[in-house]
Amino acid sequence: MRKYLALAAVAAGIWGAGASQAHAVEIEYWQYLFDSRVTAMNKLIDRFEELNPDITVKQTTFPYADYQTRLVAAKAAGKSPEVMQLFYGWLDKFASGKLLQPLSEDVFPSAEIEKDFFPIVTAMKRDGKYYGLPTAVRSLALFYNKKLFKEAGLDPENPPQTLDDMIKAAKATVKQDGSGNMISAGITLDMAGQDQHWWREVLVRQFGGDPYKDDYTKVNYNDDAGLKALKFYTGLQTDEKVGKVGFMDEGQAAFRAGLAAMTIDGTFRLGAFSSIKNFDWGVTELPANADGLRSNYASYFANGIAAGVEGEKLEAAEKFLKFVSSKEAMDIWLKTVGELPARREAAMTDENLKDPIYGPFLKGLDYAHTTMFVDESAQRQVSIDMVNRVLLQDQAPDESLKQAADAEQAIIDKAKK
Amino acid sequence: MTSANTTQVQVAPQGGRSRKRLRMQTKRVLWAWGFLALPIVFYSWIRFYPTLDAFWLSFTDWDLLNEPNFIGLDNYRQLFNDPQFWQVFKNTFTYLLAGTPISLCFAFVIAYFLDRVRFMQGFIRALYFLPFLTTASAMAWVWRWFYQPVPIGIINGLLADFGISQQPFIRSVDQALPSVLLTAIWAGVGFQIVIFMAGLRAIPQTYYEAARIDGLGEWAILRKITLPLLKPTTVFLVVFSSIGFLRIFDQVYNITTNDPGGPLNSTKPLVLMIYQSAFSSYQMGYAAAQTVVLFTILLIVSLIQLWVMRKR
After folding, report:
1. In the CATH scheme, what is the homologous superfamily, with its name and number, of domain A25-138+299-369?
2. Subunit contact B279:A181, Cβ cutoff 8 A
3. A251, A269, A290, A377: least buried by Cβ within 10 Å?
């Protein structure tokens, strides 16, 4: 009898161990490969596992070019990660493809999200439900080369604040060789980079327009304001001759090489520019128009929970998502990646606002717009082609603008079908 | 195989041993087919099944995320009404019709003269062959920098030294395609040279000796002996490089990554259009329709070439 009791005790012990092991949940987290982001996430995971010893998080990364395809393929194969990172612009595709599940209203109340986060987070909301939350957000600013400013007799501590000032500074800093070839640009022109956003969400508005209507379902830039904005942009190359599309291949490459006095780029470029050794650079808000109107474009990568995750994995995933979108996580992210916190409380601290680098980006967030893309690369291509038609084929700007508006409308209509 | 077996049965004098030998023979055949079957099954599965599947997908609206719906010929209708497709179609044939003859003539001329050089021949041949071994993307990136305007572009720098004005190269609607094509030709020519040289070596020297004794000039020897006897090599290279130019992708994609296939689609080949439809817009059905079109073109071009250059 005693023997049986002992056996039972052993069995119970084994069962107990098994049960406690079942509590150790492992969830998988996917993001795209970018060194500082991976380092930051590793730090967050360590901290999260410290706080939740029963949950392990495994991070997997893929090169950016493959990342979206991997997510889609993983869903098709039934092997989605529990928590995934996604660009806000992919949400429509991912939500309609049932890649994500909406966040539970109990754990992530909408009212609270809207109170605590910057308004751009509503881009993750569909039919009243949130599908993900960001850790960090990004906005644009004007980077300028202090050395080139000084050489041109400009005050490196007083960067241009209006579009007119910007053109003046660009004219002062642009350099040409004897045969008129540009050897250093006043400002970079790179529609494939961030200029597409500058044109759409900033210049069009500054010339009195509104680039889209009806919740970004109607293209609205084919008007006088759009035309002025396009002429202003292409005019930088054709009339003012302060920049050239394709100069040094990419705008950011020209700036890094010290061969461009100004470039418009995002927070995510801070990491790459911080390694510049041979000159000092500064950051300022995107220039205002003559009436003082400013605008900006903000975007972000959010973290969402895959469709089909349930039970204790869902609970663990929710805990993890809650942690990575907490103030503590945002502080770590800002220090490691340089991207701005998505919560007002974490972002708008005195220290951050006074920071000569983060300050201009943070101020930009206040008046930023977030384009709701249906197919980001196809829509970007429309802007690239619009400018190319004017610059390479001498097409009249109004015709090119109309063609672009029609093409982009077709892309949107097709996606909404 | 059967005829071999029957002869053995007839020839074999002693019944018992012949049955054993027959079994050996059958066994050998079975073994051979057994070994062959695995790759055949595998090959059909990875090659023909996806091909057939692509045909089926081209009639659907599959977007990778939702179940495919059968939509008949809609994808093809959309494709043939898409001006971009016709631009891409034209580009693809420009790559083919300019690339194949230019690269082959170039390769033949080099091979013909290199064949006569004895000094450092191996070294020179290796130099020509080197680009073929390099990754297409790495090469494309180097060329991309060559084509830049001053102050970094090497070619424009040279032009400037000679007082010639800068050329836009890959930033021009007219010059971009030839610029890309040049890198593709440069990359593939080493392989063609090596094959041509092997073909030239295979022509018996006695023909040349006889021709020279008969007093034939070099030009006549080339026309009457070298070129006709080199025909199998030429056919192989024409088919091989045509398929290569019809499927051009790496060079274009890497030289124009900021504006893939640009500017204004002036360099975009069919494969890049397929890639974009499939993996950046997720229009799998549409991409499959384009793939079917490409497949058909490849098939027709290959068949025509084999027919034209067949042995009489």
Report:
1. Periplasmic binding protein-like II (3.40.190.10)
2. no
3. A290
